[in-house]
Structures are given as structure tokens and as C-alpha cells.
Specification:
The protein is of the alpha+beta class. The protein has 13 helices and seven strands. Strand 5 and strand 6 form a beta hairpin.
């Protein structure tokens, strides 16, 4: 039995039942792929359901404001995905409908080779193989490939191999099968090798190298960053500002960010650690209740404290704001 046939047979018996797999609507499929780019299915599924319920069509999403989209995205992280999603929705509407070619799909903001292949194959049966972390792992282990997956050479090698294995008339099922096989069977840390239908032909299993593959070059340098936030409480109002372009959390809101808290401010949380992909952030959180309304930089706006939940904030700010619950006036 061939590799593809074995994978497809496994998928028929073990594939995950997911709502975006019950439709060929490219909008629903595209939305799921963007949400799941950096997010586990169990975390992303409720967001997909809320987006679909609030914005039934791509036209509805395009008509929403960026603030509305960011607010609905809150908690998922990697907020550039939400901004790209909103921008791409407008692109699709301008095109007159969802593009049905790989190049057309790749022209959408925030869509790369993998996402285009996933959308194109699942929605339109385009014969394009997906290559994500799950696929890299399955192929590296089964074929004993030691080329680092995060190099140009590796990406070319794995993409060519995946494409060569793809049954052109069943691209949708095969791509989804590879994703599920990597997620459920050939897992990163605890692969189910004893029950694997590919065990007999798996090079990594035969040579005892399952834990060594796939290979990834270590190139990421983690930087630390320290932030000091002051939550101002003045006559039922607080001050927030929208983070600018060119930095983390672009377009989201935060309390007063300063180097030196006022002398009469109260420290609520110190050195709260928040880990992002390329950096670790340590944040201090202060509460300040001034007697007079302070003068802040022009980009800060005053809002009723009760309205703060209407503004999209980063996960770190959510955590910090939780410190206020016991101090609500």
C-alpha cells in the first residue's frame, strides 16, 4: 500500500470532525486557516464560530471596522493576523469574490504558500500540497530527512516531496489527512509509533531516530523588554491610547505607558512575565488616583472605566487589568 493510500485510509477512520470541514465555502475555510496559523484548534474554534456568527460573509467582515475585528480577536495574539484578515476581506470584495487560483489566493494579505495551498485544495480541489509543521514532521520521520526544515533548502525539499506524494484528484482529503496524522498520530513529543500504520516503512522508527527528527536550525535570539503601565482612575474615567504601527500589538489599546510612575501611585503587579515569539516582556502595573486630571500626551483618550471592555487590548493588558477587580470603585 502506498504512502498516500495509507494516510488517506487512516484519515477516513481517525480524521477530526471540524465545522470548517463541513463546507466548501472559501470564506469559512480561509477564516479557519488564518485563525489556526499560530493557534491550537481547541483555542481557535470558538473564535471561528464567533466570527462566523457575527460576520456571515466576507462582505460583512469587510464592512466591519478594524476596532471591531481586533476586539473580537482579543486573546488570540499575533494581532497582525486580524489586521491582515480585515484587509484581505476588503481585497476579496474588491475582486468581486474569492479568488480561485493559487496565485490569486496568495495575493491576499496575510496568505502565504501554505495557507494558499490549504484554502485552494480544500475549497477548490486545486492540486497543491500543504507543508506545515505537521507535514514536515511526518515526512522527515518517515523518509529519514535531516535537512533543517527552517532553511531555504529544506523548504524546497519538503515541498517537492509533499507535492510528489499528492493524489491530484484527492488533494483536499490528503492535505487534511497529513495535518491530522501529524497532530494526532505522529505527534512531536509522544508519537504513537506502536499503532502507526506507517511503522514498517518509517526510517526514523527503524533507526531509532524519531525524537531527532525533524531537524531545525537554532537561529532565534530572544530579547527582553520592560514596560511600566499606570492605570489612571479619575472620577470614573481612565486614559488609554492605541498602539502605533511598527511595534508589537499594533492597533490595540493600553493604559498609560511611562518610564516613571507618579510618586503617589500604588504598585499592583511587578515583573509580570509575558512570552512572545521573539521576546520576553516584563511588565509592572500601577494604579494612580490623582486629585486633578493629569495632562497626558495627545494620543491618549479619556473613556469611562465601564467602557474599557469595548476596546481590544493585548493579552498582557487583560492580565494586568484583572488586578483591578478587587479595587473596583
Amino acid at each position: 500500500m502506498s504512502f498516500a493510500t495509507t494516510i488517506l485510509q487512516w484519515f477516513e477512520e481517525n480524521g477530526r470532525m471540524l465545522p470548517w470541514r463541513e463546507t466548501r465555502d472559501p470564506y469559512a475555510i480561509w477564516l479557519s486557516e488564518i485563525i489556526l496559523q499560530q493557534t491550537r484548534i481547541e483555542q481557535g474554534r470558538p473564535y471561528w464560530e464567533r466570527f462566523m456568527e457575527r460576520w456571515h460573509t466576507v462582505e460583512d467582515l469587510a464592512a466591519a471596522s478594524e476596532d471591531e475585528v481586533l476586539r473580537e480577536w482579543q486573546g488570540l495574539g499575533y494581532y497582525s493576523r486580524a489586521r491582515n484578515l480585515h484587509h484581505a476581506a476588503k481585497q476579496i470584495v474588491a475582486m468581486g469574490g474569492f479568488p480561485q487560483t493559487l496565485e490569486g489566493i496568495k495575493s491576499l494579505k496575510g496568505v502565504g504558500d501554505y495557507t494558499a495551498a490549504a484554502i485552494g485544495s480544500i475549497a477548490f480541489d486545486l492540486p497543491a500540497a500543504v507543508v506545515d509543521g505537521n507535514v514536515y514532521r511526518v515526512l522527515a520521520r518517515h523518509y529519514g530527512i535531516t535537512t533543517p526544515i527552517n532553511t531555504t533548502e529544506g523548504k524546497k525539499e519538503f515541498t517537492a516531496l509533499a507535492q510528489s506524494l499528492l493524489p491530484e484528484k484527492n488533494a483536499s482529503a490528503f492535505n487534511q489527512a497529513m495535518m491530522d496524522f501529524g497532530a494526532l498520530q505522529c505527534r512531536p513529543l509522544t508519537p504513537s509509533c506502536p499503532l502507526c500504520p506507517l511503522q514498517e516503512t518509517c526510517v526514523a522508527f527503524r533507526e531509532g531516530r524519531v525524537e531527532e527528527l525533524p531537524v531545525k536550525q537554532k537561529t532565534l535570539k530572544i530579547k527582553e523588554r520592560h514596560l511600566t503601565y499606570v492605570y489612571i482612575r479619575y472620577q470614573g474615567q481612565t486614559a488609554i491610547h492605541r498602539r502605533p504601527a511598527g511595534d508589537i500589538w499594533q492597533g490595540l489599546y493600553e493604559p498609560w505607558l511611562t518610564d516613571t510612575p507618579p510618586a503617589d501611585a500604588i504598585l499592583l503587579r511587578q515583573h509580570v512575565k509575558h512570552v512572545l515569539t521573539h521576546r520576553i516582556i516584563y511588565a509592572d502595573f500601577w494604579l494612580w488616583e490623582p486629585q486633578e486630571k493629569p495632562l497626558l500626551p495627545a494620543d491618549y483618550q479619556w473613556i469611562p472605566e465601564s467602557d474599557i471592555d469595548n476596546y481590544g487590548v493585548p493579552r498582557l493588558i487583560e492580565i494586568l487589568l484583572d488586578s483591578l477587580t478587587s479595587l473596583t470603585p
